[in-house]
Write a structure and sequence with these properties.
The strands form two sheets. Strands 1, 2, 3, 4, 9, 10, 11 and 12 form an eight-stranded antiparallel sheet that branches. A four-stranded antiparallel sheet has the order 7-6-5-8, with no helix packed on it. β11 and β12 form a beta hairpin. The mean pLDDT is 91. It is an alpha+beta fold. The chain is built from three helices and twelve strands; from the N terminus they run αβββββββαββαβββ. 25% of the residues are buried. The chain has two domains: 39 residues; 157 residues, Umud Fragment, subunit A (Ribbon), CATH 2.10.109.
Length: 201
């Protein structure tokens, strides 16, 4: 009887140890997943046509938070990044008119720069932007910040952004500038669907 009881207790201890190990593994995995999503990479899904043809509805992409440095949750502090946002980058940021949403656009103007849309092209500080990812897009003069013959100065601490699908994009031409601290990260690559897998330019 004592041997049978001992065997049962031994089996129960092994079961408890097994369950504890699995629970610990699950907790560690969850913590790592949250840390990666918060500070390193975050997946996003494209819901609109504002970045066509670069991005289409349904594209799923990864946004790199390490590049510019992630914002520490519940604070305005940004961790040091490996680089600074530059013209032509595709960035994800908090929507200016609805803080519960995120927008994705192409960065056009940096702090202190004068931006003008002229005959479909972008001029920064009076010079035509020749970068192909910007030059090959026709930008329409629309909105109060994108009027014809109107040069807009980007305030300190802000960015000017535009959608690649200029004819159908709610962007800086209409609602103004993106605060630097609202930038979530840089869109790096499409990972789904398989036929669309690619690094972004």
């Amino acid at each position: 009887m004592e041997m049978a009881t001992s065997a049962i207790e031994d089996r129960n201890r092994k079961i408890k140890a097994f369950i504890r190990e699995w629970l610990e593994a699950i907790v560690v995995a969850l913590i790592m997943a949250i840390a990666i999503r918060t500070f390193i990479l975050q997946p996003f899904r494209i819901p609109s046509t504002s970045m066509v043809p670069t991005l289409v509805v349904g594209d799923r992409l990864m946004v790199n938070k390490l590049s510019y440095g992630a914002i520490v949750p519940l604070t305005t502090y940004r961790l040091p990044g490996f680089s600074k946002p530059k013209r032509g980058d595709i960035i994800v940021f908090r929507a200016p008119e609805d803080r519960k949403k995120d927008f994705i656009k192409r960065l056009i103007g940096l702090s202190g720069e004068k931006v003008e849309i002229k005959f479909g092209d972008i001029y920064v500080n009076g010079q035509l932007v020749s970068d192909p990812v910007i030059k090959n897009i026709y930008y329409y003069n629309r909105g109060s910040y994108g009027e014809v013959n109107k040069s807009i100065t980007v305030p300190a601490g802000y960015y000017f952004v535009l959608g690649d699908n200029s004819g159908s994009s709610s962007d800086s031409r209409f609602w103004g500038f993106v605060p630097q601290n609202d930038v979530i990260g840089k869109a790096e690559f499409i990972y789904w669907p398989p036929t669309r897998i690619r690094f972004l330019k």
